Amino acid sequence: MKKVLLLSVGLLALAACVRQSGEPEQSTPLSAHEMRERLIEQNRAVLEAERGDIQAFMDSSGLTFESTGTGMYVWTLGSSHGPAIDTAQRVQLRVHVHGLHGEVFSNGLRQEVAVLRDNDAIWGLQEALIRAHVGDSLICIVPAHLAHGLAGDLADIPPLTPLVYYLRILQ
User: Fold this and answer.
1) Which is it for the CA torsion 110, 151, 44, 126, positive or negative?
2) Residue 33 lies in a domain
């Protein structure tokens, strides 16, 4: 029954797309307000899809992630009891970066970054480091706006890609 209903809806949608006459379709230009509203609606749809993907990843992991309030989620493996990281220092990390669907963007990279104001580090990574201690192991789910945003990294990471950072803070 469901298959028949879906097939019927699909055929109706297809029939609606087929033109009844050979006349060219007239388009009415959108006003600035209508264009703005459409763009806002599309942006909301993309953000909602990203939130859904992030939630599905967290649900499938079985881990309890903590929200940072910016759209990012962090899970810390135990407490290292190491010293808190000072925002003025540079830290050494072991980094694995993946997409939500398992794409590998870097694997085991050793990286040194400044906790704040490092142009080579994404904002989400800097936000995670502010909360961390030397010796911590973290899994950070970083939404696209705190990662590489609309453009991606212009090399490997596509635009609007949320990332999963597996971090070990070495020193």
Assistant:
1) positive
2) no
